[in-house]
Specification:
Blueprint (H helix, E strand, L loop, with lengths): L1 H8 L2 H16 L3 E3 L6 E5 L8 H12 L4 E2 L7 H4 L2 E5 L4 H11 L4
Antiparallel strand pairs: 1-2, 2-4, 3-4
Helix pairs in contact: 2-5
Length: about 110
Amino acid sequence: FVGSVRCVLESGDMRRKKDFLSEGLESAGFEIFRPQGTYFVTADARSVGYEDGLELCWQLPEKVGVVAVPNVVFYDNAAEGQHLIRFTFCKSLDVLDEAVTRLQGLR
């Protein structure tokens, strides 16, 4: 199963989307962790001025109209994931482009 997911993620279309979102998040000021087996790009909320990723995720829809998932909900030790959030790239390039454009407004 993992090999199948990796093949899909490395296919031309998904690779373009992953790279596009990754580069867009970096240009918006996020420090990111490039995915190697998931449909999500993990980003550090501290790199855009938030210590708490959950707080940022609550504010993103109102501030810029973009949704992210707080990674803290996946951690037994909340302190380890408190600052991390994730964005999915299994969307159309048009949607990803709009999200990246909107996220530039966080600066």
